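Table 4 source record.
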Amino acid sequence: MKVTGMNSADLVSALYDNTTNSRDKNKDSNSIENLLSSNMSANNPVMAKLARKAENKDYYKKALSAADQTNELLHKLNDAKKSVFVKAADTEDEQKREEYQTEAVQDIAGLLNSYNTMISNLMEAGGGTNKNFLNELNQLMKDYDKELSAFGITGKEDGTLALDAEMLAGAEIDALAQVFGPDGDFSQKLTEKMDAIVQKTATTVDTLQIYSTAYSNSGSYSQYDYLKGIYDLKA
């Protein structure tokens, strides 16, 4: 039995009929919880919206984890004092420069990997906000297609990025710094967008966690205990 969109009085009546007319007097408690939860969500647009999002909570959590990792690597490359690009510019030791170049390549490759994971999960999570983020990121990659393709980085139709590892590994560190370093326009714009994505996605994950916990415990935050008591009395 599933009832949605009722007021409290109608729901109580439905519950009474369900419990008194049923041949099975030992109803599983999950059935009443499902009945109440369905009704309360239907009567509250905000809850209904959260309920739809909650179905994709795992995608949001995976997207947040990947976004955090992407952002961490971006900030590492952008650090005006500690970035490998800054260190490379401050030394004339060729061996050190090679080591910094290798580190930069590894960080960029890791960044691209986590970026792709984030994109995939934002797509799976869906929603208007995520769609806007995806469109903005896709446009940014198109705007810097020439600069990125010089390192073997190209955009794919699904919004993820393909990588020619040999091209990236062979790139000069000074050239990489112009795109991914502290003074690179691309890195600054991507960091700005990533900061917004991390903040928004983290808020969504927190909200869904609170919703899932509170709603599963109380149903409607206000009417569940009252209606559940009537069910227990009549059952």
